[in-house]
Write a structure and sequence with these properties.
- This protein is mostly helical and about 450 residues long.
- The protein has one domain: Hydantoin permease.
- Helix 9 crosses helix 12.
- About 50% of the residues are buried.
- The chain has 19 helices and no strands.
- Helices cover about 75% and strands about 0% of the residues.
- The structure holds 4-fluoro-L-phenylalanine.
Length: about 450
């Protein structure tokens, strides 16, 4: 590998990895999963998974990347375990599936930006019809994917990183502003108590595996992304503190999105929040009328800025999603970079069409599958989210087995200690050993088995 270069600073790495992590997962997916999962109980399980299970896995991925200075696929061979490069391949599959549904939601967000610009606040109520306009949404999706492809083909993500250093904080400021405003709305309190006061009797198996899938998706885990990022991290950097900062940022943004959404949901449903339909349309159905209540000028300004910044957050994540299969084609199959980008983009666009038309336009893809344990059919996009979750969780399970038992705990800990000598013999070292060797593989393995049995075979053991 020639002159790979490094991140110019620790902050540069944290910003780039957070740019990949913070995206639609935090602001679009997180709130509706919380709503479906019964509120605060979901939130608590989610936060625990992020810090106890995902953080050690992220540290392991980064350590593998930094040790080998290789892309995800060849990293395992470099460590002497060529068969484990299957993990890289699973990551590639997950990123292709992930991007095929991601661009559809990004297209909704971009379309909403245009609607907000012309002050069409009634779009929230017309959401179901809006997304049935597959030509329009498909066109927006194509624009979004083309920009993503352009950035990846030019290798100009440096520019995107620079832009995101301004735009991401701007999104954060806007989220805080909207959240503060939402808290002043009538019935806001009911929304906040749904979000923050847990009712543990609500906890059922699907809530647990959905929370884990959401944690993986949001932190970009199990897709070998952090191995790639890790390969550019300097040997002087402290992996532990960088990974903690990325996790904190990502969880923080998702948490804030909840503080913003639930008062609004409660306001619109006159305080009766249980049973609110929290599907993938949640933020698109609820936010426009709140922007309208800000008054015509403020509404247009805040509404269009919000959806523009959300689209931008999606773009930084989409760039890293596309980079994974493109790098694979270039490095392993010697395909020219531009050709690899074009082929992958066309393939992903086509793969996204069932997700695009499965929102009411095609009844086949709208009622795509009926899971064993559920009464109503699931649409194709939601089916892909679930399938991707299973692939990511399997990737995470294998990473923990690899880190603890193949590469080995001591090699892993030696790498974590590079750039952080105080790590050796510390409590953190003991904790990470424990998590990676026992907690992660056991919990992940168990949840994977229970999920597959419950969802696909309708066999609920707990
Ligand atoms: N973490 C991103 C989000 O929450 O929107 C999605 C994502 C981006 C997943 C990049 C995986 C990835 F490699």
């Amino acid at each position: 590998m020639s002159s790979r270069g490094n991140f110019s600073s620790k902050i540069g790495f944290i910003a780039a990895a957070s740019g990949s992590a913070v995206g639609l997962g935090n602001i679009w997916r997180f709130p509706f999963e919380v709503a479906n999962g019964g509120g605060a109980a979901f939130l608590i399980i989610y936060i625990n998974f992020c810090f106890l299970l995902c953080l050690p896995l992220m540290i392991t991925e980064i350590a593998i990347g930094r040790k080998t200075q290789r892309d995800a696929s060849s990293a395992f061979a470099h460590l002497g375990f060529p068969k484990w490069s299957i993990l890289g391949k699973m990551g590639i599959l997950a990123s292709i599936i992930g991007l095929s549904l991601y661009y559809v939601i990004a297209a909704w967000s971009f379309g909403y930006f245009l609607e907000m610009l012309i002050g069409n606040f009634s779009i929230g109520a017309q959401f179901n019809d809006y997304i049935k306009d597959v030509i329009k949404i498909g066109f927006y999706g194509l624009i979004f994917l083309s920009i993503t492809a352009f950035i990846v083909s030019k290798g100009i993500s440096g520019g995107v990183e620079k832009a995101s250093k301004i735009l991401m904080p701007a999104l954060l400021v806007l989220l805080i502003f909207i959240a503060c405003y939402a808290l002043t709305l009538p019935n806001a309190f009911q929304g906040i108590s749904f979000y923050l006061v847990p009712d543990f009797s609500e906890i059922k198996l699907p809530i647990i595996y959905t929370a884990l899938g959401q944690a993986f998706f949001s932190l970009s885990l199990g897709m070998a992304i952090h191995i790639t990022f890790g390969s550019f991290v300097s040997k002087n950097d402290n992996i532990l503190s960088s990974a903690s900062a990325i996790t904190l940022t990502d969880v923080g943004v998702a948490f804030l999105a909840g503080i913003m959404i639930f008062p609004i949901v409660a306001y619109q449903s006159s305080g009766v929040i249980e049973g609110v339909n929290g599907g993938p349309g949640l933020i698109f159905q609820t936010l426009p009328s709140v922007f309208e209540s800000l008054g015509p000028w403020m509404g247009v300004l805040i509404g269009s800025c919000f959806f523009l910044l959300l689209t931008f957050a999606a773009l930084t994540s989409a760039v890293s999603l596309l980079e994974v299969p493109v790098t694979y084609l270039v490095d392993q199959h010697k395909v020219r970079r531009n050709l690899a980008v074009i082929l992958m983009t066309i393939f992903i666009f086509l793969l996204g069409i069932p997700s695009l038309i499965g929102n009411g336009y095609s009844s086949f893809f709208t009622n795509f599958i009926q899971y064993g344990s559920e009464g109503t059919p699931t649409d194709f996009l939601t089916f892909l989210i679930h399938t991707n979750d299973v692939i990511m969780l399997s990737g995470g399970f294998l990473i923990s087995i690899f880190g603890a038992y193949k590469w080995g705990k001591s090699n892993l800990n030696n790498e974590i200690a590079v750039g952080n000598p105080a790590y050796k013999g510390s409590k953190a070292e003991k904790l990470i050993k424990l998590m990676i060797s026992y907690f992660c593989p056991i919990v992940l393995g168990l949840i994977l088995i229970l999920t597959i049995l419950d969802r696909y075979f309708g066999i609920t053991l707990v």
